[in-house]
Amino acid sequence: MPPLIHPEPGYLVLFFILSCLMAIAKDNKPSYLQIALNNYDLTICQYENSANR
């Protein structure tokens, strides 16, 4: 099954760190970490959208 996007090594590392952070956030439920992760996701989405234009 081919990947929808071609991930670069940097993206894979970012994804790994993000999944670790989300696992920690689900365990400890610190709201500030969740807010930071949400803002980070928004930044990634905006960056990808601007790169696609």
TrEMBL record:
Keywords associated with the record: Signal
Leader sequence segment: 1-25
Source organism superkingdom: Eukaryota
Keyword Signal: yes
Record-given protein name: Uncharacterized protein
Annotated organism of origin: Setaria italica
